[in-house]
Amino acid sequence: MSSTEHLRHTRIPLAHGGGAMPAVGFGTLIADRSAASRSITAALQTGFRHLDAAERYLNEDVVGDAVKQAFNAGTLTREELFVTSKLWNTNHRPERVRPAFEASLRRLQLDYLDLYLVHTPFAFQPGDEMDPRDEHDHPIYDTGVTLADTWRAMERLVDEGRCRAIGLSDITLPALKEIVAVARIQPAVLQVESHPYLPEWELLEFCRQHGIVLLAFAPLGHGMEPRIADDPVIQAIARRVDQTPAQVALSWAVQRGTAFLTTSTNPAHIEQNFDIARLPDDAMQVMRQGIDTRVRLNAVVETGVPGFVPRRA
């Protein structure tokens, strides 16, 4: 990992793919399309060079338009930008993987993706309905495909050269181990909820051992209770180092070797989330030893239904 005192420039080489991932990433899960466009543009202008998109967010075209505008303005080149998208649950059958990938590329107006993730390990009933439900409003799962089947189709995307790396998201350690054991092309990245209240140390250690980058979503707890920014340990460190509590939590994420995604529609918060600096080593120790709150905010790892994504109308 290369970094400076200003951690915003940290890039993590991908052991199982091309290039390096900027550790500081911007998530594009913003329901209001106009707000999404403004926020993505602001993030790029601030200096974010890692955008995280997904078919399920229903706004890949907005992401693509914002990126194209930056390209056309000459403020950004494709080589500087790291773009991720994700295969949705209804497209796990091998014959649906390439069409879903190509549709994402068209919406994003790109020739290739730096990273393509399996959005969750849960296969839903294939079809146009993104959230298929039974009469009891339970998800309808697809028992005719395994995650290993889907992964083999993902590997073929890398073989064809239009996807530089592949990975997994919203998956538990036991399920990750099953894919690592059978994969011809190993996962380059694992995207999961992680923050000071859910540090996932065991999962992180497994990723380190296998050359997998852990990419944390909700690194600030998505503003939910209990609020990470209100933690007394983090607040004390923030006062000491003259950072905001949010900046402390984000700096902690990068310094322990992970990447992260933040999402905001507030220009000031976008700038603050990018402008993070190295914490003293003893502060890192205090955060590991002094924070004992443990909470998972998103149950997607149990159901495949992402808790932060609104149901499709």
The portion of residues assigned to helices is 25-40%
How do the helices and strands follow one another from N- to C-terminus? EEEHEHEHEHEHEHEHHEHHH
Strand order in the sheet with the most strands = 3-4-5-6-7-8-9-10
**SS elements, strand count:** 10
DSSP strand (E) fraction?
Answer: 5-15%
Radius of gyration: 19 Å
Structural class of the helix and strand makeup? alpha/beta
Q: Distance between the terminal alpha carbons, to the nearest Å?
A: 42 Å
Largest sheet: 8 strands, parallel, barrel
Compute the average pLDDT: 96
Please, how many helices?
A: 11
Q: What gross morphology would you assign? A: globular
Task: Show unreliable segments.
Answer: none
Topology of this protein?
Elements: E1 11-13, E2 20-22, E3 24-27, H1 33-46, E4 50-52, H2 60-73, E5 82-87, H3 94-108, E6 115-118, H4 147-159, E7 166-169, H5 173-182, E8 189-193, H6 201-209, E9 213-217, H7 232-241, H8 245-255, E10 259-262, H9 267-274, H10 281-290, H11 300-303
Parallel strand pairs: 3-4, 3-10, 4-5, 5-6, 6-7, 7-8, 8-9, 9-10
Antiparallel strand pairs: 1-2
Helix pairs in contact: 1-2, 1-9, 2-3, 3-4, 7-8
